[in-house]
Design goal:
The complex is a heterodimer. Chain A is mainly alpha-helical. Chain A is 87% helix and 0% strand. Chain A is built from nine helices and no strands. Chain B is of the alpha/beta class. Chain B has a six-stranded mixed β-sheet, with helices on both faces. In chain B, helix 3 crosses helix 4, helix 3 packs parallel to helix 5 and helix 5 runs parallel beside helix 6. The chains are: A mainly alpha, B alpha/beta. At the A-B interface, helix 5 of A face helix 2 and strand 6 of B.
Chain lengths: 249, 254
């Protein structure tokens, strides 16, 4: 038990050290500035297909689910309210975040892990580069900046998908759906989801980079650290989701 | 001058270096030989601060490597070229980009950058390979690109980690000649770690044998070839007796 606690504390200390190294390396803008744009495309733009795929089907299910639940008791235009609120506040950030914990977290951890075990990270250091400025900061910056963009697009797509479903499969007109969306709308509905998405992006990238650079050994360890990065990233999303709900709602 | 001053290094329970002491004079090539897993590469990585000693110190031109701040360490690294055992080329970059990466730190003009890349690749007989990716190169070619990447920096020191391991004899001989040529042209101080004795005899001014974490013997190529130390003899003759036999013959003094 004592050993387990000591191991856990050591782990926390290492992550803390990793974060402080990451923050310190942000001063070297000349190194990470140009590389961040490349990562924004890889992490953000290339994640759009999976994000929109998730959003389309979530929108369909939300519309049908709410219609099924409200029948007889609640006016049907509340379908719009439910779809809008659920997409913006919770489902777009969390479902897209979980999907990207797999896509981005695994990609980052596997790439850096392979670089680590093939001594490419050491080579970078011998060429007078700081691996944090060159590898970690661009990925963390890109994920933190691009996750809100991806989630915003996913929210919009999900709402459109819910609207198309409501109009075509339910007995609901476009003005009624829009009325439902506008009924309890607050600007907070938008920024709350985006703040969450930003924190998810930061956490997924940090976890992926940490496990990638912690890799020792060979291919088996790269696989192990990649899996761990995905699991820890998903856990971080759920914990942060609850944290923001407690703090901001 | 590079000085290893009683360096100790352990990984968990495993003690890899135990009071490792060695001086590498300016302009010379010192070859560190020893069994696989004896800690040769570990010693080499201390020179560029990739590893920190548990005790003792490594100094380069009087600077204690593990005490340098980030900026000074970066300055030191820019004077040292490191050739990795498996080349450690950046596989997402072309040969040209691999060479340019370190050079960009030196803030050269585009023309100088291009010229350095061209010269370095010519030196390792790889002119025309600029736009190829590491995955498209053979093992020997990758090692030569790794050497070109180090040489392109025009370093004061060159560190070679097992430069000929895993290569066929002809390619290994080509790498040996490149190392000799590099020293003649650039006048660099080099440390080569290897267990390839043909390479050690060809490129080394002095040879140091690492055994059980410490230097067992240092000498010129001739001195090593004529040594009476049973441990060193066993290694250079490639005799398969257990290490304990040779140690017993040496009176147990490891």
């Amino acid at each position: 038990m004592t050993l387990r606690v000591a191991g856990w504390l050591t782990g926390v200390g290492r992550v803390g050290h990793f974060l402080s190294d990451t923050l310190r390396s942000m001063r070297e803008v000349g190194t990470w500035g140009g590389l961040t744009a490349v990562q924004m495309r890889r992490i953000g733009v290339q994640s759009l297909p999976i994000a929109t795929f998730i959003a389309v089907f979530t929108g369909i299910v939300l519309a049908l689910l709410s219609s099924y639940s409200f029948t007889g008791a609640v006016p049907l235009y509340f379908v719009g309210t439910f779809v809008g609120k659920a997409m913006m506040l919770e489902l777009a950030p969390v479902l897209v975040g979980l999907a990207l914990a797999g896509r981005v977290g695994a990609n980052v951890a596997a790439e850096l892990g392979t670089m680590k075990v093939t001594e490419q990270v050491d080579a970078l250091e011998t060429l007078a580069y700081d691996p944090f400025s060159y590898l970690v900061v661009p990925r963390v910056m890109a994920a933190t900046l691009m996750f809100p963009v991806v989630v915003a697009i996913a929210s919009a797509v999900g709402i459109v998908s819910g609207w198309v479903t409501a109009v075509n499969l339910l007995d609901l007109s476009t003005p009624e759906f829009v009325k439902g969306i506008r009924l309890f709308y607050q600007f907070k509905d938008i920024w709350f989801g985006l703040v969450k998405a930003m924190s998810f992006g930061f956490a997924i990238a940090v976890v992926g980079c940490y496990h990638g650079l912690e890799t020792r050994g060979g291919a088996q360890e790269v696989g192990k650290e990649t899996t761990t990065a995905v699991v820890r990233g998903a856990e971080a999303i759920l914990v942060l989701d609850a944290f923001w709900a407690v703090v901001l709602l | 001058m590079i000085v290893f001053n009683n360096v100790c290094k352990s990984f968990g329970e495993k003690e890899v270096l135990r009071n490792f002491a060695l001086e590498v004079q300016d302009g010379e090539t010192t070859v560190v030989i020893g069994y696989s897993g004896s800690g040769k590469s570990v010693a080499l990585k201390h020179v560029v601060g990739l590893l920190e000693p548990d005790a003792g110190e490594v100094t380069v031109d009087g600077q204690v490597v593990h005490e340098l701040d980030r900026q000074s360490l970066r300055g030191l690294r820019s004077r040292i070229g490191f050739v990795f055992q498996f080349a450690a080329l950046f596989d997402s970059m072309t040969v040209r980009q691999n060479l340019e990466l370190g050079l960009k730190r030196q803030k050269l003009s585009e023309r100088e950058l291009e010229q350095r890349v061209r010269e370095s690749l010519a030196m390792v007989d790889l002119t025309g390979s600029e736009d190829r990716y590491p995955a498209e190169l053979s093992g020997g070619m990758r090692k030569r690109v790794g050497l070109a990447r180090a040489v392109a920096l025009k370093p004061q020191y060159l560190l070679y980690d097992e430069p000929t391991t895993g290569l066929d004899p002809v390619t290994a001989a080509v790498i040996n000649e490149l190392m000799v040529r590099t020293r003649e042209r650039l006048g660099v101080t080099s440390i080569v770690v290897t267990h390839d004795l043909t390479s050690a005899y060809r490129v080394g001014d002095r040879i140091a044998m690492l055994y059980r974490g410490a230097i067992r013997q240092v000498g010129t190529v001739e001195q090593i070839q004529r040594t009476h130390d049973p441990i060193v003899r066993q290694f250079i003759e490639g005799r398969p007796e257990a290490g304990a036999d040779a140690e017993a013959a040496a009176g147990g003094s490891a």
